[in-house]
Design brief:
- By secondary structure, chain A is mainly alpha-helical.
- Chain A has one domain.
- Helices cover 80% and strands 0% of the residues of chain A.
- In chain A, helix 2 packs antiparallel against helix 3 and helix 3 runs antiparallel to helix 4.
- Chain A starts with a helix and ends with a helix.
- With 201 residues, chain B is mainly α.
- Chain B has a single domain, classed as Cytochrome c oxidase, subunit III, four-helix bundle (Four Helix Bundle (Hemerythrin (Met), subunit A), Up-down Bundle).
- Chain B has a two-stranded antiparallel sheet.
- Classes of the chains: A mainly alpha (86), B mainly alpha (201).
- Chains A and B meet through helix 2, helix 3 and helix 4 of A and helix 1, helix 3 and helix 6 of B.
Chain lengths: 86, 201
């Protein structure tokens, strides 16, 4: 555990905690309130965090990071618009 | 360069100063390609949902979002374990990384057990991919994701055996890191799939 301590005291662990809380929150929103756009927004914020922190894209060359960020934005917008039009 | 050994803290990529492609570049072509394929399937799902919203909404009520929630938490926990394992190996600490990778595999295994329980629960009450369009999407999308997860378990096994080496050269470490990124992609796709199938109504 001692070798893990410095690794656990990083922003990535905090991000993991945030993602876990956000997951339970969107589950509660979905099962009790049905706030779809909020749920989709939370999902894509989570996706972005997984990319930037877990996949370490925040330290990647700008081109790779930009492609990933554009993917998050484009898919979120497309799915939201499709949902709202349905 | 290719013979350099990953094992000192100085090799840790410093975000924003020294750009670092996590994993092999080729792995990223595959990961991004897969993400685009899934995005197209997500949009296709919403397109067909738009044609019969009532059917999709009533069918969705027969899913149990608790399965989706627990599976999301399992994948998030496995991702953190993989992040920690990559961090340890990068720091040259290999042995303690192994149980973390095994832990991530256990999370993937638990995900699979829940999928079997969930699928058999559906089949028991006569719900199959032929039931209606919603359940066709449900089985195809979750099934394809599960297929990726199964490959992911093999990828984690590769990471486990990689971590058993006393040292990794730059190229070996890039494959190790890339393998971790693949596992995160399995997590990332489920993060969208879960709300889309179980919660959007």
């Amino acid at each position: 555990m001692t070798v893990l301590a410095p690794l656990l005291r990083t922003r990535t662990s905090a991000v993991w905690l945030l993602l876990t809380v956000a997951t339970v929150l969107s589950w509660a929103l979905g099962t009790h309130h049905g706030l779809t756009i909020a749920i989709l927004a939370i999902a894509f914020v989570k996706v972005r965090f997984v990319g930037l922190y877990f996949m370490e894209l925040r330290g990647a060359p700008p081109a790779l990071r930009t492609v990933f960020e554009l993917y998050c934005a484009a898919v979120f917008l497309t799915l939201s618009v499709m949902y709202l039009l349905s | 360069m290719s013979t350099a050994v990953v094992g000192s803290r100085s090799s840790t990529p410093e975000p924003s100063r020294n750009y670092h492609v996590p994993g092999e570049t080729g792995v990223w072509v595959f990961i991004l390609g897969d993400m685009v394929v899934f995005a197209i399937m997500f949009a296709t799902y919403l397109y067909y949902r738009g044609k019969d919203v009532a059917l999709f909404n009533t069918s969705q009520l027969r899913l149990n979002p608790d399965f989706g929630l627990i599976n999301t938490l399992l994948l998030l926990a496995s991702s953190l374990l993989v992040v920690l394992a990559v961090g340890l190996v990068r720091a040259g600490i290999h042995r303690p990384a192994q149980p973390l990778i095994l832990g991530a595999m256990a999370c993937g295994g638990a995900f699979s057990v829940l999928k079997v329980i969930e699928y058999s629960g559906k089949l028991d009450v006569g719900i199959t991919p032929q039931t209606n369009q919603f359940f066709m999407f449900y089985f195809v999308l979750t099934g394809l994701h599960w297929f990726h997860l199964a490959i992911g378990l093999a990828v984690l096994a590769y990471m486990y055996f990689s971590a058993r080496r006393t040292s990794l050269d730059i190229k070996q470490f890039a494959w190790f890191e890339g393998a971790g990124c693949y596992w995160h992609m399995v997590d990332l796709l489920w993060i969208v799939l879960f709300p889309l199938l179980y919660l959007v109504n």
